[in-house]
Design goal:
Elements (H helix, E strand, L loop, with lengths): L1 H4 L3 H30 L2 E4 L4 E4 L1 E8 L3 E5 L5 E3 L2 E6 L2 E8 L6 E7 L4 E8 L6 E4 L3 H8 L4 H4 L5 E3 L3 E4 L2 E5 L4 E6 L5 E6 L2 E6 L6 E5 L8 E3 L5 E6 L2 E6 L2
Parallel strand pairs: 3-9
Antiparallel strand pairs: 1-2, 3-6, 4-5, 4-7, 7-8, 10-20, 11-12, 12-13, 14-15, 15-16, 16-17, 18-19, 19-20
Length: about 240
């Protein structure tokens, strides 16, 4: 310290100016990086170029899941996932203990937002109980045509296929007995043999909800929020908490 104080004033002033200049330059670089990042730019180390990114925005239920993108370390997310990615294709997996994982191969486009709303993870082992309430039983037994939830009539099915307009959702080997919309209109539930299953309307993430005691055609519907499946299993009416 004494040596520094005894240096010539001009030399000390020069060192102070250099130090302040370096600090100002560092602040400028950091600020520029933050501005570029906020505007959606990232540096691509493979091409050594600055590239405009795309945004992936996802909402899902239940809360507190893990989101993994193309083999990266999973991150814990409460209910909304939003991140910037370089343009390209990515494999996304959303998972939670006790639930079927949701997986999708997505495309990120520069300057665009990829919206993936109302993603639902369904329980692998739903809680099932017997229904005795006659009002609920009457609701299950009421006619439930797909047109009730689909007034435009674009949802249709035959013995082995489910269609949305001109788009094939899925083709199955076993016979399909019935198809209905899941609340939110992002999923379709259907009976196939002795199973009630659910599938995304793009044909992905087809999972089992409940097993039935027989392959006879049955009636089923969902609670308004989609958390409960109400159905008839033979002569017994049941309630399954599916998410």
């Amino acid at each position: 310290m004494k040596e520094y104080l005894h240096r010539p004033r001009e030399k000390r002033l020069k060192e102070i100016i250099v130090g302040q200049s370096l600090v100002a330059l560092l602040i400028l670089v950091i600020s520029s990086c933050l501005v570029f990042w906020g505007m959606g730019y990232k540096f691509n180390w493979q091409t050594m170029k600055i590239i405009h990114t795309g945004i992936v925005y996802m909402t899902f239920a239940p809360d507190n899941v893990e989101v993994a993108v193309s083999g990266q370390k999973p991150s814990e997310v409460k209910s909304v996932f939003e991140a910037q990615f370089l343009p390209g294709y990515y494999d996304v997996k959303i998972s939670k203990d006790g639930y079927y994982s949701w997986q999708q191969h997505i495309k990120v486009i520069a300057d665009q937002v990829g919206w993936y709303k109302n993603i639902v993870l369904f329980k692998t082992k739903p809680e099932i109980s017997v229904i005795s309430d006659q009002n609920i039983i009457s609701s299950i037994d009421s006619p439930y045509d797909i047109l009730v939830k689909n007034p435009e009539g674009d949802l249709s099915f035959n013995q082995h296929e489910i269609w949305l307009g001109d788009d094939l959702v899925t083709r199955l080997s076993n016979q399909i007995s019935s198809v209905i919309w899941y609340p939110g209109s992002e999923y379709l539930a259907y009976q196939q043999a002795d199973e009630i299953r659910i599938i995304e309307k793009n044909g992905s993430n087809d999972v089992l909800l409940v097993k039935l005691s027989s392959s006879d055609k049955t009636n089923f519907l969902f609670s308004w929020d989609g958390s409960v499946l109400l159905y008839r299993d033979g002569a017994v009416y049941k309630r399954a908490v599916i998410r």
